[in-house]
Design brief:
The complex is a heterodimer of chains A (398) and B (173).
Chain A lengths: L20 H7 L3 H11 L11 H10 L6 E6 L8 H8 L1 H15 L3 E6 L7 H13 L16 E6 L9 H8 L23 E5 H13 L1 H5 L9 E8 L5 E6 L4 H8 L6 E4 L5 E4 L17 E5 L5 H15 L5 H19 L4 H17 L3 H5 L2 H9 L1 H5 L6
Parallel strand pairs in A: 1-2, 1-4, 2-3, 5-9
Antiparallel strand pairs in A: 5-6, 7-8, 7-9
Helix pairs in contact in A: 1-5, 1-8, 2-3, 2-5, 4-5, 5-8, 11-12, 12-13
Chain B lengths: L2 H17 L7 H12 L4 H11 L3 H8 L13 E6 L2 H5 L2 H12 L5 E2 L5 E6 L11 E3 L2 E3 L4 H14 L6 H7 L1
Parallel strand pairs in B: 1-3
Antiparallel strand pairs in B: 1-4, 2-3, 4-5
Classes of the chains: A alpha/beta (398), B alpha+beta (173).
The complex binds flavin mononucleotide (FMN), iron/sulfur cluster and FE2/S2 (inorganic) cluster (FES).
Chain lengths: 398, 173
């Protein structure tokens, strides 16, 4: 199968796994064995947080209340991330295979795929895939001849809000409310969509589930590092010669990745999107993995002439716009940081005030309700840490 | 709003609400449909939707204003959304923005007086490797340059009969 995913160091997995192969192999196993296999594979969530998928499924499977829901998070709003779009375009069957395997494992009867509004042009394509799968018995009643295994998938459209990628905000949105994150616990595996046990997995996580059953747990675990098993898709953009979606094993160094994409002269890279950290050239030997520099797969490359203050400004602007406004540290903190970056540009930010801003950023990281406010200042802080001289030495604009 | 248009709106709202037995979960699908078809969600529409779903109109308002694709205010039939986020900024979205404003004759956040075009900023739309990127309704355009957006706007204009730019309208008034 042809694909736009690239790599010169390893084989491309998704193009080599036939649709429904992983699903059929998984459905030959008992529900307990499916979850055990995912446990043993050490698969961790590809949506950013890296939570072990087997553990999540186990928690939901242990719940006795029904109906249960198996939900796919296709909100992909993190700046610099576009791998889920490529998966949904080129390998949608792997995603639905993964959802159906998950449904079997936890005992879910309905699935929802929450597609971001910006990907509206994929809606019809995905509806067609769902319709085809219903016709061929891969969705619907008694799937694969297993009596009583009923599972169907609906595609739910988002309406334009980054925060709805956060799993509890996603549920609020599915239920018809503002996408304001909930307190956790209770976690969605206990009380999710309509108050019922729900598993929410990223598009890529689900595609890997299908690959793990198709190619085997051992195969998957033989790649990557101890704490970060398997391959990962990386969305690479910015100042490099060959941007795009790449497949690499976890543990690849920043330097090696930059060589692959033609971005060797970079002065820094933003890893993990706007909510991730800025890694300077001096740290390019670090490894992309949950135990070193964690990432949902987004890498934005900054060439030697980029103004790091402008980058901090663009990132904070994004968070000011996308904060749901529900809690004070995030609602008020992000505009304060943005204003601080503007003062740095104008040369009117004293060191005293800059230290106050750092204190504010630390407060936001511990006191915000959801991941958005907890991570929105990470890029700002890492740019200050590594590029303080560049950011500070501005003449006042008099 | 004309009576016939109100009837049509009611039919549209009911058609979606009935799929879920008027469950609250159909609120966003309804708002998306109304916005797509009528380009805005006025107070009558909000009250109607609230009535059908058995919730307070303020709840409809609070949800509509939360999401950028279902904002209540009326937009043009063709909604231009240019990405302003990191990768597209690195690729030079600023000059594309200038050209768009000049060709459409409106600024960001504005709609042409004949309600054909509107222009707004958007956040990352998942086309970062092909920036600068923009959406026109549900069509995505990538690797934009000032020249390229000029051609795109001209193409849309030629499909619109009797489109009047803001500047032309001001000259007439
Ligand atoms: C502000 C915010 C935005 C998020 N956006 C996404 C997203 O667009 N896609 C996604 O899969 N996960 C996103 N997440 C992570 C989800 O909350 C959740 O952890 C993930 O979908 C779980 O799937 P996984 O375990 O398969 O990674 C976001 C989290 C936060 C805090
Ligand atoms: S941290 Fe920000 S996005 Fe998250 S709940 Fe608070 S205000 Fe909303
Ligand atoms: S930054 Fe513009 S599409 Fe992602």
């Amino acid at each position: 199968m042809s694909t736009s995913i690239k790599s010169s160091t390893n084989e491309l997995t998704f193009a080599s796994v036939p649709a429904a192969d992983g699903l059929n192999k998984a459905l030959a196993l008992s529900r307990v064995d499916i979850i055990d296999a995912i446990h043993e594979s050490k698969l961790k969530g590809r949506g950013g947080a890296g939570f072990p998928t087997g553990t999540k499924w186990n928690l939901a499977a242990a719940e006795t209340r029904t109906p249960k829901y198996m939900i796919c998070n296709a909100d992909e709003g993190e700046p610099g991330t576009f791998k889920d779009r490529v998966i949904l375009t080129e390998f949608p069957d792997l995603v639905f295979d993964g959802m159906t395997i998950g449904a079997r494992a936890i005992g879910a009867s309905l699935g929802l795929l929450y597609l971001r509004a910006e990907y509206g042009y994929l809606h019809e394509h995905l509806e067609n895939v769902v319709a085809r799968r219903r016709k061929t018995g891969l969705l619907g009643r008694d799937i694969a001849g297993i009596e009583g295994f009923n599972y169907d998938v609906l595609i739910a459209m988002g309406a334009g809000a980054y925060v709805c990628g956060e799993e509890t905000a996603l549920i609020e949105s599915l239920e018809g409310f503002r996408g304001e994150p909930r307190n956790r616990p209770p976690f969605p595996v206990v009380s999710g969509f309509l108050g019922r046990p729900s598993v929410i997995n990223n598009v890529e996580t689900l595609a890997w589930v299908a690959c793990i059953f198709s190619k085997g747990v051992e195969w998957f675990r033989s790649y990557g590092t101890g704490a970060s098993a398997g391959h990962k898709l990386f969305s690479i953009s910015g100042d490099c010669e060959h941007p795009g979606v790449y497949e690499f094993p976890f543990g690849i160094t920043v330097a090696k990745l930059l060589k692959e994409v033609g971005g060797e002269d970079a002065k820094a890279v933003q890893v993990g999107g706007a909510s991730g950290r800025c890694v300077p050239r001096s740290e390019f030997e670090r490894r992309l993995a949950f135990e070193d520099v964690p990432t949902g797969g987004s890498i934005v490359v900054f060439g030697p002439d980029r103004d790091m203050r402008a980058i901090a400004h663009n990132i904070l602007d994004f968070f000011v716009d996308e904060s749901c406004g529900q809690c004070t540290p995030c609602r008020l903190g992000n505009p304060k940081l943005l204003q601080g970056v503007e003062m740095l540009q104008e040369g009117t930010c004293s060191l005293q005030y800059l230290n106050d801003l750092k204190g504010l950023a630390r407060t936001m990281q511990v006191a915000s309700k959801c991941g958005l406010g907890q991570t929105s200042s990470v890029a700002f802080m890492s740019i200050l840490e590594h590029f303080e001289n560049e950011v500070l030495g501005r003449k006042p604009l008099l | 709003m004309l009576i016939t248009e109100r009837d049509r709106l009611r039919e549209d709202v009911l058609a979606i609400a009935e799929l879920t037995d008027c469950h609250r979960a159909s609120l966003i699908p309804i708002l998306r449909k109304v916005k797509e078809k009528y380009r805005g969600i006025d107070t009558y529409a909000m009250q109607l939707i609230a009535d059908v779903l058995g919730i307070h109109p303020v709840e409809v308002y609070s949800v509509a204003t939360f999401y950028s694709f279902i904002q209540p205010q009326t937009q043009g039939r063709l909604a231009f959304r240019l990405c302003r986020t990191l990768s597209c900024e690195l690729e030079g979205k600023e000059s594309v923005a200038e050209q768009l404003q000049r060709d459409l004759g409106i600024g960001f956040g504005e709609t042409t007086p004949d309600q054909v075009f509107s222009l707004e900023w958007a956040n990352c739309m998942g086309m970062c490797d092909q920036g600068p990127a923009m959406l026109v309704n549900e069509t995505v355009y990538t690797q934009l340059t000032p020249g390229k957006v000029h051609d795109i706007v001209e193409e849309y204009k030629s499909q619109q009969e009797g489109h009047v730019t803001k500047r032309q309208a001001e000259r007439v008034l």
